[in-house]
Protein backbone atom coordinates (compact mmCIF):
# COMPACT_ATOMS: atom_id res chain seq x y z
CA UNK A 1 0.00 0.00 0.00
CA UNK A 2 1.47 3.35 -0.99
CA UNK A 3 -0.63 5.44 1.42
CA UNK A 4 -2.51 7.29 -1.35
CA UNK A 5 -6.26 7.53 -1.04
CA UNK A 6 -9.01 8.99 -3.18
CA UNK A 7 -9.72 12.61 -2.13
CA UNK A 8 -12.98 13.04 -0.28
CA UNK A 9 -15.38 15.50 -1.88
CA UNK A 10 -16.90 18.10 0.46
CA UNK A 11 -20.48 17.55 1.52
CA UNK A 12 -22.96 19.54 -0.64
CA UNK A 13 -24.16 21.33 2.49
CA UNK A 14 -20.63 22.49 3.37
CA UNK A 15 -20.16 23.68 -0.19
CA UNK A 16 -23.47 25.57 -0.03
CA UNK A 17 -22.50 27.48 3.12
CA UNK A 18 -18.85 28.11 2.20
CA UNK A 19 -17.90 31.71 2.97
CA UNK A 20 -14.83 33.77 2.14
CA UNK A 21 -13.77 36.48 4.56
CA UNK A 22 -13.58 39.62 2.41
CA UNK A 23 -13.05 42.10 5.24
CA UNK A 24 -13.59 42.28 9.01
CA UNK A 25 -17.21 41.29 9.72
CA UNK A 26 -17.96 40.76 6.00
CA UNK A 27 -18.25 37.39 4.25
CA UNK A 28 -18.90 36.39 0.66
CA UNK A 29 -20.95 33.36 -0.41
CA UNK A 30 -22.79 31.98 -3.38
CA UNK A 31 -26.16 30.26 -3.73
CA UNK A 32 -26.17 26.52 -4.46
CA UNK A 33 -28.27 24.67 -7.01
CA UNK A 34 -28.20 21.69 -4.65
CA UNK A 35 -30.27 23.66 -2.13
CA UNK A 36 -32.47 25.64 -4.50
CA UNK A 37 -36.20 25.93 -3.80
CA UNK A 38 -38.89 27.13 -6.19
CA UNK A 39 -37.82 30.77 -6.71
CA UNK A 40 -34.94 31.23 -4.26
CA UNK A 41 -32.62 29.18 -2.04
CA UNK A 42 -34.09 26.86 0.60
CA UNK A 43 -34.60 29.10 3.63
CA UNK A 44 -32.78 26.65 5.89
CA UNK A 45 -29.54 26.89 3.93
CA UNK A 46 -29.76 30.70 3.93
CA UNK A 47 -30.21 30.61 7.71
CA UNK A 48 -27.30 28.16 8.01
CA UNK A 49 -24.99 30.41 5.97
CA UNK A 50 -25.84 33.37 8.18
CA UNK A 51 -25.28 31.23 11.27
CA UNK A 52 -21.96 30.07 9.81
CA UNK A 53 -20.83 33.67 9.31
CA UNK A 54 -21.40 34.40 13.00
CA UNK A 55 -19.67 31.17 14.02
CA UNK A 56 -16.66 32.11 11.88
CA UNK A 57 -16.41 35.64 13.29
CA UNK A 58 -13.26 35.81 15.44
CA UNK A 59 -15.12 37.87 18.04
CA UNK A 60 -17.66 35.11 18.67
CA UNK A 61 -17.55 33.50 22.11
CA UNK A 62 -19.74 30.68 23.38
CA UNK A 63 -22.28 28.68 21.39
CA UNK A 64 -25.60 29.69 19.78
CA UNK A 65 -28.51 30.07 22.18
CA UNK A 66 -31.13 31.77 19.99
CA UNK A 67 -31.45 32.81 16.36
CA UNK A 68 -34.25 34.83 14.76
CA UNK A 69 -34.26 35.41 11.01
CA UNK A 70 -36.61 37.56 8.95
CA UNK A 71 -36.77 37.12 5.18
CA UNK A 72 -37.24 40.53 3.58
CA UNK A 73 -37.15 39.74 -0.16
CA UNK A 74 -36.31 36.78 -2.44
CA UNK A 75 -32.63 35.96 -2.84
CA UNK A 76 -31.48 35.61 -6.44
CA UNK A 77 -29.12 32.95 -7.77
CA UNK A 78 -25.52 34.11 -7.54
CA UNK A 79 -23.18 35.87 -5.14
CA UNK A 80 -24.19 37.44 -1.86
CA UNK A 81 -22.52 39.10 1.13
CA UNK A 82 -23.13 38.54 4.83
CA UNK A 83 -22.25 41.17 7.42
CA UNK A 84 -21.89 40.31 11.11
CA UNK A 85 -22.01 42.83 13.94
CA UNK A 86 -21.36 42.19 17.61
CA UNK A 87 -23.91 44.59 19.08
CA UNK A 88 -23.20 43.99 22.76
CA UNK A 89 -21.33 41.51 24.95
CA UNK A 90 -20.97 40.75 28.63
CA UNK A 91 -19.16 38.05 30.57
CA UNK A 92 -21.51 35.24 29.60
CA UNK A 93 -23.40 36.25 26.43
CA UNK A 94 -23.14 38.11 23.15
CA UNK A 95 -25.80 39.78 21.03
CA UNK A 96 -25.31 39.69 17.26
CA UNK A 97 -26.88 41.31 14.20
CA UNK A 98 -26.42 39.50 10.87
CA UNK A 99 -27.46 40.75 7.42
CA UNK A 100 -27.44 39.12 3.99
CA UNK A 101 -27.11 41.46 1.02
CA UNK A 102 -27.26 41.29 -2.77
CA UNK A 103 -26.60 44.33 -4.96
CA UNK A 104 -26.27 46.39 -1.76
CA UNK A 105 -29.83 45.51 -0.68
CA UNK A 106 -30.55 43.74 2.60
CA UNK A 107 -32.64 40.65 1.78
CA UNK A 108 -32.49 38.83 5.13
CA UNK A 109 -31.60 39.96 8.60
CA UNK A 110 -31.13 38.07 11.85
CA UNK A 111 -30.47 38.65 15.51
CA UNK A 112 -28.70 35.98 17.53
CA UNK A 113 -27.42 35.31 21.02
CA UNK A 114 -24.34 33.25 21.88
CA UNK A 115 -23.67 32.19 25.45
CA UNK A 116 -21.11 30.33 27.51
CA UNK A 117 -22.91 27.19 28.61
CA UNK A 118 -22.30 25.99 32.16
CA UNK A 119 -23.58 23.14 34.24
CA UNK A 120 -26.68 24.02 36.26
CA UNK A 121 -29.85 22.34 37.46
CA UNK A 122 -31.62 21.16 34.32
CA UNK A 123 -35.03 19.73 33.49
CA UNK A 124 -36.92 19.23 30.21
CA UNK A 125 -40.71 19.43 30.48
CA UNK A 126 -41.35 18.75 26.80
CA UNK A 127 -41.83 15.04 26.13
CA UNK A 128 -40.37 13.25 23.15
CA UNK A 129 -43.19 11.30 21.48
CA UNK A 130 -43.06 7.51 21.41
CA UNK A 131 -42.53 6.75 17.72
CA UNK A 132 -40.98 3.95 15.66
CA UNK A 133 -37.25 4.28 15.10
CA UNK A 134 -36.03 5.76 11.83
CA UNK A 135 -35.05 2.38 10.38
CA UNK A 136 -38.60 1.13 11.00
CA UNK A 137 -40.07 3.88 8.79
CA UNK A 138 -39.74 3.79 4.99
CA UNK A 139 -38.03 6.72 3.31
CA UNK A 140 -40.46 8.97 1.44
CA UNK A 141 -39.64 9.45 -2.27
CA UNK A 142 -38.38 12.97 -3.06
CA UNK A 143 -41.19 15.28 -4.12
CA UNK A 144 -38.98 16.88 -6.78
CA UNK A 145 -36.12 15.57 -8.88
CA UNK A 146 -33.89 18.59 -8.22
CA UNK A 147 -33.22 21.12 -5.47
CA UNK A 148 -32.99 20.91 -1.71
CA UNK A 149 -35.51 18.08 -1.31
CA UNK A 150 -32.85 15.80 -2.80
CA UNK A 151 -30.52 16.77 0.02
CA UNK A 152 -32.72 15.42 2.82
CA UNK A 153 -34.26 12.05 3.57
CA UNK A 154 -37.69 12.12 5.17
CA UNK A 155 -39.11 9.11 7.02
CA UNK A 156 -42.69 10.02 7.86
CA UNK A 157 -44.25 8.85 11.12
CA UNK A 158 -47.39 11.00 11.24
CA UNK A 159 -48.95 13.47 8.82
CA UNK A 160 -49.55 12.77 5.14
CA UNK A 161 -48.65 15.67 2.83
CA UNK A 162 -51.25 17.15 0.46
CA UNK A 163 -54.11 15.42 2.24
CA UNK A 164 -56.92 16.47 4.55
CA UNK A 165 -55.37 15.34 7.82
CA UNK A 166 -57.45 15.85 10.99
CA UNK A 167 -54.82 18.32 12.22
CA UNK A 168 -51.45 19.72 11.17
CA UNK A 169 -49.37 17.67 13.60
CA UNK A 170 -46.46 15.94 11.87
CA UNK A 171 -43.68 13.64 13.05
CA UNK A 172 -40.80 12.75 10.74
CA UNK A 173 -37.25 11.49 10.93
CA UNK A 174 -35.01 13.76 8.82
CA UNK A 175 -31.37 13.36 7.85
CA UNK A 176 -28.87 14.91 5.44
CA UNK A 177 -28.20 13.23 2.08
CA UNK A 178 -25.49 12.06 2.09
CA UNK A 179 -25.19 11.64 5.87
CA UNK A 180 -23.35 14.46 7.66
CA UNK A 181 -22.45 14.91 11.35
CA UNK A 182 -24.76 17.35 13.09
CA UNK A 183 -23.50 20.81 14.05
CA UNK A 184 -25.12 24.18 14.72
CA UNK A 185 -25.20 25.15 11.03
CA UNK A 186 -26.94 21.96 9.92
CA UNK A 187 -29.27 22.00 12.92
CA UNK A 188 -30.26 25.54 11.90
CA UNK A 189 -31.15 24.26 8.43
CA UNK A 190 -33.04 21.26 9.81
CA UNK A 191 -35.23 23.65 11.80
CA UNK A 192 -36.63 24.75 8.42
CA UNK A 193 -37.16 21.22 7.09
CA UNK A 194 -40.77 20.92 8.33
CA UNK A 195 -43.41 20.48 5.63
CA UNK A 196 -45.53 23.66 5.46
CA UNK A 197 -48.54 23.10 7.71
CA UNK A 198 -51.07 24.17 5.10
CA UNK A 199 -50.07 21.17 2.97
CA UNK A 200 -51.16 18.91 5.84
CA UNK A 201 -54.67 20.34 5.96
CA UNK A 202 -55.60 20.73 2.29
CA UNK A 203 -54.78 18.64 -0.79
CA UNK A 204 -54.26 21.58 -3.16
CA UNK A 205 -50.98 23.41 -3.68
CA UNK A 206 -50.79 27.16 -2.99
CA UNK A 207 -47.74 29.45 -3.19
CA UNK A 208 -46.06 29.99 0.18
CA UNK A 209 -43.08 31.87 1.58
CA UNK A 210 -41.40 31.89 4.97
CA UNK A 211 -41.58 35.27 6.69
CA UNK A 212 -39.72 34.58 9.93
CA UNK A 213 -37.94 31.73 11.72
CA UNK A 214 -37.07 31.65 15.41
CA UNK A 215 -34.82 28.94 16.90
CA UNK A 216 -33.78 28.17 20.48
CA UNK A 217 -30.83 25.80 20.80
CA UNK A 218 -30.98 23.50 23.83
CA UNK A 219 -28.01 21.25 23.01
CA UNK A 220 -24.33 21.84 23.63
CA UNK A 221 -21.63 21.10 21.06
CA UNK A 222 -20.87 17.91 23.00
CA UNK A 223 -24.46 16.69 22.53
CA UNK A 224 -24.38 17.47 18.80
CA UNK A 225 -21.05 15.66 18.40
CA UNK A 226 -22.40 12.63 20.22
CA UNK A 227 -25.46 12.59 17.95
CA UNK A 228 -23.27 12.31 14.85
CA UNK A 229 -24.98 11.79 11.50
CA UNK A 230 -28.07 9.99 12.82
CA UNK A 231 -31.54 11.23 11.77
CA UNK A 232 -33.34 13.76 13.98
CA UNK A 233 -37.01 13.53 14.91
CA UNK A 234 -38.92 16.64 13.85
CA UNK A 235 -42.34 17.34 15.39
CA UNK A 236 -44.45 20.38 14.52
CA UNK A 237 -48.00 21.71 14.58
CA UNK A 238 -49.68 24.95 13.54
CA UNK A 239 -51.59 27.14 15.96
CA UNK A 240 -53.57 29.22 13.46
CA UNK A 241 -54.22 29.85 9.77
CA UNK A 242 -55.58 33.35 9.14
CA UNK A 243 -55.38 36.34 6.81
CA UNK A 244 -52.88 34.74 4.47
CA UNK A 245 -50.45 33.58 7.16
CA UNK A 246 -49.95 30.53 9.37
CA UNK A 247 -47.48 29.58 12.06
CA UNK A 248 -46.03 26.45 13.55
CA UNK A 249 -44.25 25.42 16.71
CA UNK A 250 -41.67 22.67 16.31
CA UNK A 251 -39.34 20.42 18.28
CA UNK A 252 -36.19 18.72 17.05
CA UNK A 253 -35.17 15.61 19.02
CA UNK A 254 -32.10 13.40 18.90
CA UNK A 255 -32.40 9.67 18.31
CA UNK A 256 -31.87 9.24 22.07
CA UNK A 257 -34.77 11.54 22.97
CA UNK A 258 -32.71 14.63 23.83
CA UNK A 259 -34.30 17.97 22.93
CA UNK A 260 -31.92 19.66 20.50
CA UNK A 261 -33.93 22.74 19.50
CA UNK A 262 -37.34 24.33 19.53
CA UNK A 263 -38.49 26.56 16.71
CA UNK A 264 -41.34 28.79 15.60
CA UNK A 265 -42.09 29.91 12.08
CA UNK A 266 -44.46 32.33 10.35
CA UNK A 267 -45.37 31.58 6.73
CA UNK A 268 -47.25 33.59 4.09
CA UNK A 269 -49.60 31.82 1.71
CA UNK A 270 -51.48 33.01 -1.37
CA UNK A 271 -55.05 32.07 -2.28
What's this model, at a glance?
By secondary structure, the chain is mainly beta. It is 12% helix and 38% strand.
Please write the CATH class name. Mainly Beta
Mean pLDDT: 95
SSE ordering? HEEHEEEEEEHEHEEEE
* Number of E strands: 13
CATH topology: Porin
The share of residues in helices is: 10-25%
Tell me the name of the CATH homologous superfamily. Answer: Acyl-CoA thioesterase, double hotdog domain
Pairing-aware structural class of the strands and helices? mainly beta
Low-confidence stretches: none
CATH architecture title: Beta Barrel
Q: What is the rounded Rg?
A: 19 Å
Number of helices: 4
The description of the largest β-sheet is:
13 strands, antiparallel
Fraction in beta strands: 35-45%
Distance between the termini: 64 Å
Oligomeric state of the chains? single chain
**Tally of distinct domains:** 1
General description of the model:
Strands 1, 2, 3, 4, 5, 6, 7, 8, 9, 10, 11, 12 and 13 form a 13-stranded antiparallel β-sheet that branches. It is built from four helices and 13 strands. Helix 2 runs antiparallel to helix 3. A hairpin with a 2-residue loop joins strand 5 and strand 6. By secondary structure, it is mainly β. The radius of gyration is 19 Å and the shape is globular.
Amino acid sequence: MNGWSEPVSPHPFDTAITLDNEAPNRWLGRTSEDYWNMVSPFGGVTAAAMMQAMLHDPERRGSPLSFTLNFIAPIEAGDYAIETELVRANRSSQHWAIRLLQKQRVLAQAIAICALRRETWSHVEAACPAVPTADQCPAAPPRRATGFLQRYEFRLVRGKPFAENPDSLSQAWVSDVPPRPLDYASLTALCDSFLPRIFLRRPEFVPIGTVSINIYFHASEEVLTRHGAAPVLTVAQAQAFSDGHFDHHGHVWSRDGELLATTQQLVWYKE
